[in-house]
Design goal:
Keywords: Calcium, Metal-binding, Muscle protein, Repeat
Radius of gyration: 12 Å
Strand order of the largest sheet: 1-2
Structural class: mainly alpha
InterPro entries: EF-hand-dom_pair, EF_Hand_1_Ca_BS, EF_hand_dom, Parvalbumin
CATH superfamily: EF-hand
Strand content: 5-15%
Function: In muscle, parvalbumin is thought to be involved in relaxation after contraction. It binds two calcium ions.
GO molecular function: calcium ion binding
CATH architecture: Orthogonal Bundle
Distance between the termini: 23 Å
Organism: Electrophorus electricus (Electric eel)
CATH topology: Recoverin, domain 1
Amino acid sequence: MSLSGVLCADAIQNAVKDCQAPESFCCKKFFQLCGLSQKSPKEVKDVFRILDDDHSGFIEEAELKFFLQRFVPGARVLTERETKAFLSAADDDNDGKIGIDGEFIS
């Protein structure tokens, strides 16, 4: 399954374009722009599984760095500061990773 199977390709492009500049990424705004925040829990889990590159059941800091590239090949990597801010915003139990239940898009 690809992300465009769950999200509109134009919305994905617009969301990635909105955060092209370094230090401009905001996960909540990105999820709104790409339409993920309006998806069903099943669709959100489908997207999570695509983003979980190593299929560990978690999205770790190393995977977050390449978050935008999972949506659009060739997109920029997140800066270290953006990656840490994203992890901090989503990692409710402070285990250093984002879980599928309760943390991803909470």
